[in-house]
Amino acid sequence: MKIHRLHWGILLAMPIFLLVPGLASAAVITVNSNTDLRTPSDGFCELAEAIDNANQQTGVDVSGGDCTAGDVGPNDIAFNIPGGIQTIVINSDMGVISSEIHVDGLTQDAGASCAPRNLYISIDGNLSTQKIFYFLPGSENSTVRGLNIFGTTVAAIDINTNSITVTCNNIGTDITGTSGAPNANQDSGI
Q: In sequence order, what are the residues at sequence separation of 6 or more whose Cβ sits closer than 8 angstroms to the Cβ of residue 51?
């Protein structure tokens, strides 16, 4: 008798779970290349293409099939670049972030962690005048986590909205966090 009631409780709870906003699963867009060419249909999902697709939030793929299409609601950007520790060298405009996106460098390797700090993805701004992450209204509740970011001549992360979380990153250092690799202009942003 108790088992019968338990089954009814589960069946009744399932529709409620499906209707609660924010509990729907986000699209996971996996970066599989450390290049920054933004070449559609080349088989490589690059960080810039992943951000472009996540911003779409319509299920439309603008990468030519290289990346998963962004979904309505938050989108997660994960990393699975073969070869362990990777450096993405920025050679083009990364674009703005205008939707909720969660970029998680800790997904690159099972050994990645915040405590102790053990990061596997570096982003080298290559003395670019382009911001690496530029958050605009519409991107509220986004996160940047588990990245080593260095080498820009402007703000590496520029936040022009509310509720952005930047955590577990090395900014302006090498990937170990022990040696300086500063952004050329430390005063304008992060």
A: 77, 94, 95, 97, 101
The DSSP H or E segment spanning 53 is helix 47-56
pLDDT > 80? residue 122: yes
Contacts for 13 with CB less than 8 Å, ≥ 6 apart: none
pTM here is 0.82
Strand intervals (E) in 101-146: 101-104, 121-128, 133-135, 143-145
Q: If we measure between CA atoms, which residue out of 120, 173, 119 comes closest to residue 149?
A: 173
CB contact set of 116 (below 8 Å; sequence gap of 6+): none
Which tokens sit at 13? 């709870």
Angle at 103 between CA 71 and CA 74, to 5 degrees: 30
